[in-house]
Amino acid sequence: PDLIQKLSDPQVWYGTAEEAEALATNALELISAYPKYAYNVIESMVRALALGSTDPRGAEISVGGRTFETCLEAKAECRQLLQNHLRKFPGGANLDPQEEAFLRELLAHHPRGAEKARGCRAISVGTHPKFGKEVECFYV
What SS3 state is found at 134? Predict the structure, then answer.
């Protein structure tokens, strides 16, 4: 189907929130109608997450007085923050005020950042309750 061809470009997932939601709905409908395409859809999503957006408007991010030239650099910083915190607190814990301020500022760059931050009292780290130690997460 045409949707599989469209999904071969990882950047299609980085449109507006409405475009991404419509694409996700179409992908779910495709998988429901043709389960054999589930792998293709998942592969496209994983590739999109791994590569990040190449949109030049979102390439450089300034957060906490630091400038990251790409989204991938900012992502690597977050991964390092997550791993360092879990090394100090293996069971998970709230971030210190400086770390939390950094992540709150970074969250403002997320397309749905305001929605995600609504009602946030703290940001913590831990492992995913369903997937265990293999999946480390920030909790807002």
Answer: strand
> Roughly what angle, to the nearest 10 degrees, separates helices 71-88 and 97-107?
150
Q: Are strands 132-139 and 66-68 parallel, antiparallel or unpaired?
A: unpaired
- Is residue 57 scored above 70 in pLDDT? no
Coarse DSSP helix, strand, coil percentages of the chain, rounded to the nearest 5 percent = 60, 15, 25
* Rounded distance between C-alpha atoms, residue 127 and residue 44, angstroms: 25
Query: Left if phi > 0, otherwise alpha if psi is -120 to 50, otherwise beta: which for 17?
Result: alpha
How long a stretch of residues is the chain?
140
Strand partners, 8: none
Q: What angle do CA 124, 18, 68 make, to 5 degrees?
A: 50
How many contiguous H segments (helices) and E segments (strands) does the chain have?
6, 5
- pLDDT tens-digit map of 68-95: 887 778 888 888 988 888 888 887 888 8
Closest to 93 measured CA to CA, from 136, 58, 124? 124
> In sequence order, what are the beta bridge partners of 62?
67
Q: What is the pLDDT of residue 21?
A: 84
Residue 124 near residue 92, CB atoms below 8 Å: yes
